[in-house]
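User: Here's a protein and a ligand (magnesium ion). What would the complex look like?
Assistant: Let me lay out the input and then the predicted complex.
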Amino acid sequence: MPSYREFYRRSIDDREGFWREQAALIEWQQPFERVCDYDRPPFVKWFVGGTTNLCHNAVDRHLAERAQQNALIWVSTEVEQERVYSFAALHAEVQRMAAVLLSAGVKQGDRVLLYMPMIPEAAFAMLACARIGAIHSVVFGGFASVSLASRIDDAQPVLVISADAGSRGGKVMAYKPLLDEAIRLAQHQPAKVLMVDRGLSAFERVAGRDLDYAAMREQHLDAQVPCTWVESNHPSYTLYTSGTTGKPKGVQRDTGGYAVALAASMTQIFDGRPGETYFSTSDIGWVVGHSYIVYGPLLAGMATIMYEGLPIRPDGGIWWKLVEQYRVSVMFSAPTAVRVLKKQDPALLSKYDLSSLKRLFLAGEPLDEPTAQWIAKGLGKPIVDNYWQTETGWPILGIANGVEPAPSKWGSPGVPMVGYDVRLIDETTGAELTGAHQKGVVAIEGPLPPGCMQTVWRDDERFVKTYWSTIPGRQIYSTFDWGIRDEDGYFFILGRTDDVINVAGHRLGTREIEESIASHPNVAEVAVVGVADPLKGQVAMAFAVLKDASAAADPTAALKLEGEIMKRVDETLGAVGRPARVRFVSVLPKTRSGKLLRRAIQAVCERRDPGDLTTIEDPSALQQIRDLVNAG
Ligand code: ATP
Ligand code: MG
């Protein structure tokens, strides 16, 4: 077995040979003529001339060996339902959906926008689009009309698929009025709207435009819709980034490269094997949902769990109950979700039989060591951090499986995954930082490996300008994250480049201060931002959510706790990192995907307009901070 270092090296030094081998993980209709076309940097084409189909590889190809095996397991604690589809049943449902799409006039290359809750029909629709060569664009079901309208205008779909309602914490959230309003606001008008009626919320139908899925499905029960073979570089979908730092970007993904990269990641990173069960707690509205609820597990011949519900309802043990019930072997979640569980009874982590579970993967935000230790100890399982972006579609940094393992290090998402030529760059000079523990921008030398974004949807110029033109003197992909690399080649992500705090000439990542504060036993989560200061340039401000809020119930107790926390920062980072204030709030402002909106907190602290807040989860969280700032 080669060491991971050698395996990885080959993926960079013999790019063509390496990916040619990986390409055999999926089935091709026509073989490709060229592995990698990088004639027009930074645009890259993978597996040029090859034809394939994502749905074929995710569903049809498994029928011969595993038709009766579980493929899609849907569990809803919102409506108290479970539905299990074998690969054969999934195949039938996807063909019905595909037939409905065709009869609604959808053609190859057309966009189909999904605005749906976590129901099986959403997965059928994604796979059906892939089947007929249509491009799906999933918009997170929690977005309101304005966000949805802007995405309708950008994607210009011929069809929108939606449902009457979603449900969250037992509360029905009607989707249809939001959708109708969004279409009213949008310039672009989709010709048809396909409605899945769950019977949760009565809605009005627009005559001539709105179609009923159940009725149309009835007409296509025996549908046989063959896969449309598309060239490897045919776009499979577009998807918007989380909008943490501003206007979301429409990421465009190819077909062949994505299928190969996901299939490779399933064995090389996740150790997911055919016949096992994968459980990702994300939402189909995010990239993790695309790659690791729908496509990745199915490509690998695994069953995948699609869960509609909260992690703490009926209680904080629900996920682990599902792990026991379905013998989950690989699980994927986010630090933000673990921080939610941290406020629950830890006994719930050991109540169920977790013997099937190999590892828990976490991504999406920096994973602080206290949170990682807490969940690792509670579950008695290895926790694997991994770092990536909507743009890349699969992990940039992680811990590889199978090859002589590089052990994980607390606080680090690991080392570069195959195909990613990761560099650290000094953002002002553009010079490459090769020494250990130097801080710089995490960048990727082109070409990006298979599976990454092709371009910004309908905007090549924005792709080049946004991602490839920010480092002085060279064309290299910027992640806009800031990090260091240690002497063993492990990366540590310190925060986003615009979150770096400059205190009296010392540059600190918000992450470093947050980590130090989070090590206080009563801190559940914390956000640190840099706030303009006439004397020091910037000072750090911290907003913390406590596990036990009563500890800061009165002003004296709060001051005492604040002092304790500052002392901790002094001890771990030194006085430069000490925040000017540590304030206590009941909830932090986050995006719908659970990421801290530091940009908005900073603006409020500096009494500026927080800007585009369309992706915020709970506006009252920002109001709490505003009240604290105004009270002084
Ligand atoms: P936008 O680009 O619209 O501002 P976003 O960057 O939050 O939104 P995503 O693509 O969902 O959108 O998130 C990717 C970002 O999440 C990364 O660039 C990084 O900042 C952060 N991230 C993801 N995984 C990790 C991790 N394991 N450790 C640290 N940060 C992470
Ligand atoms: Mg981003």
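Summary: The CA atoms of residues 405 and 435 lie 24 Å apart.
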